[in-house]
Design goal:
By secondary structure, the protein is of the alpha+beta class. The protein has twelve helices and four strands; from the N terminus they run E-H-H-E-E-H-E-H-H-H-H-H-H-H-H-H. A four-stranded mixed β-sheet has the order 1-4-2-3.
Length: 277
């Protein structure tokens, strides 16, 4: 076993007061949203002096900015009582997304940490992009609705390289969120926007399926919209992959200016390629 990092001389046990906790939070940026149940549990433990000193450290960068420990700091303020914990200093900011083994940060948490707006939609879009590029949407398990695990490093790489594109696509779908939600998941529209090169055309399609404006008989966008509205009142429920496949088929006819009379995709079919990608 080889030591990879020499201890920082500031490492050690500290008592954190409510005033200290507030200062730490004031200096903090880009952490994830609070988990209320986790926060409430720590508040109770600190209030009743049952908070256990353990080796789940609070982590700080070289400048003393807290990278991990916001729930404990916030709970200290709410309980208005101090607590003791081990603190580790001098950790590079780039290691931040690897911290917190108790509550694994999701793809959306990571997007939020890395400063992406509409982080939930960005994460879902990134997942769909990976599934599409890997051919995972063709699998029987995908059709049944199960989720293929994407490595965290893949998300980090996508957010770093394509964060601007993901945010633009998310924003293009989110602006129609309330109307779009009754037709298809917002993330699926964002995915289509991300994949297609002709952004103006795909934005017309998204607006059309969301609002119905500018659509005419035989438009793939109109058939898709009407199909989803009709299904909403039936017992039969499409899987998310089925919905996305129908959206892609509707898009393909819309993109190519084809007039069609029906829209259909069977679960034993190969997932359709996306025209204009």
């Amino acid at each position: 076993m080889r030591r990879m990092r020499r201890p920082d001389p500031r490492d050690g046990w500290y008592e954190i007061t409510p005033s200290d906790a507030q200062q730490l939070l004031d200096k903090q940026v880009h952490n994830r949203s609070l988990n209320k149940s986790h926060l409430d549990r720590i508040v109770r433990d600190i209030s009743e002096r049952r908070f256990k000193e353990n080796r789940q450290s609070m982590v700080f960068n070289d400048g003393g900015r807290m990278l991990d420990g916001q729930h404990r700091a916030r709970a200290c303020i709410i309980a208005n009582k101090p607590f003791s914990t081990y603190c580790v200093f001098g950790i590079p900011d780039s290691f931040f997304a690897s911290f917190d083994q108790v509550f694994l940060r999701t793809a959306a948490n990571l997007a939020q940490i890395m400063g992406l707006k509409n982080s939930m939609v960005c994460a879902a879009t990134a997942t769909l992009v990976q599934h599409y590029q890997l051919g995972a949407l063709n699998s029987a398990s995908a059709t049944a609705g199960s989720i293929k695990v994407i490595p965290k490093e893949t998300y980090k790489s996508m957010y770093s390289k394509y964060g601007d594109e993901l945010q633009r696509s998310a924003a293009a779908a989110v602006q129609h969120g309330s109307q779009l939600a009754r037709i298809a998941p917002v993330s699926q529209a964002a995915f289509l926007h991300y994949i297609v090169n002709n952004k103006k055309k795909v934005e017309e399609f998204i607006e059309g399926i969301a609002t119905g404006s500018g659509l005419h008989k035989g438009d793939g966008a109109l058939l898709f919209r009407n199909r989803m509205i009709a299904l909403a009142g039936q017992k039969h429920r499409m899987s998310q992959v089925e919905k996305l496949a129908h959206m892609v088929k509707g898009w393909n006819s819309f993109y190519n200016g084809e007039k069609i009379t029906f829209l259909r995709w069977r679960i034993d079919e190969t997932f359709p390629s996306i025209d204009g990608a």
